[in-house]
Amino acid sequence: MELIAQFFEELYHRTGWNFSVLYNAWEAKKYVNGIYIALELALWGLLGAMIIGALCCFLRLVRFAPLRWLVTAYIEFFRNTPGLAQLYFLFFGLGSYFQLSTYGQNGEPPFLSPFKFVVIGLSLQYGAFVAEILRAGIEAVPKTTKEAAEALGYGRWAALYHIVMPLAFRISLPALGNNMAQIVKSTAMAYAIAVPEALYVAHEIWTEHFNVIEMMNVVLLTYLGMMWIFTLIVRLIERWLHVPGMGR
What we know:
Distance between the termini: 43 Å
Helix content: over 70%
GO molecular function: transmembrane transporter activity
Number of strands: 0
CATH architecture: Orthogonal Bundle
Number of helices: 9
Radius of gyration: 23 Å
CATH topology: MetI-like fold
Structural class: mainly alpha
Number of domains: 1
Order of helices and strands: HHHHHHHHH
InterPro entries: AA_ABC_transptr_permease_3TM (IPR010065), ArtM/GltK/GlnP/TcyL/YhdX-like (IPR043429), MetI-like (IPR000515), MetI-like_sf (IPR035906)
Domain ABC transmembrane type-1: 35-231
CATH superfamily: MetI-like
CATH class: Mainly Alpha
Subcellular location: Cell inner membrane; Cell membrane
Family: Belongs to the binding-protein-dependent transport system permease family. HisMQ subfamily.
């Protein structure tokens, strides 16, 4: 690590290319913490999206029509509006109106931190996509499989829980993996409400050193690395859950 730091420091003095985050220990620690926060946002957002999406998928199967309409309205709203606009609406709109994002009169911290608002925003936005992905997965399960479950004595919900949903989840994995990739990339919008993730920290660094080009390259490579790790995990899960005879 010392050799790497020395190399980039000498590179700066010789060429003017200032990758300060790679030789300045304080900035390196700050940037690594920003990466950690970005990963934490992605994991919490993924968990929230999966829970909301699965719940909405089940609710769309109930026979109570008004509940199905409500879920459909939620899905259409969050699928067809920009994620950043949704975050602003949650943080500056609802958060300010209900005093969830504002400090108290005596300086008490807000009820929900900006970090939590980003997690909520990611969960709501991508939960709508997960609901549609799982719905498509359920429809892709062969009709004969559902009929076989009924012939074995499974009720509607029992067949859905024990047979249809496990198969639908496996069928949906590639699309869910793509959705997860979008969540990882969308953590960058946390920058808009001052959550100190990787892009926000990079902005602080290039504001001080005026090394915008260098830091943007570092940020892009950081997200490329995170995407590679998440993609590898998804592929391993796909192989682990692969059902012989289904798909490739």
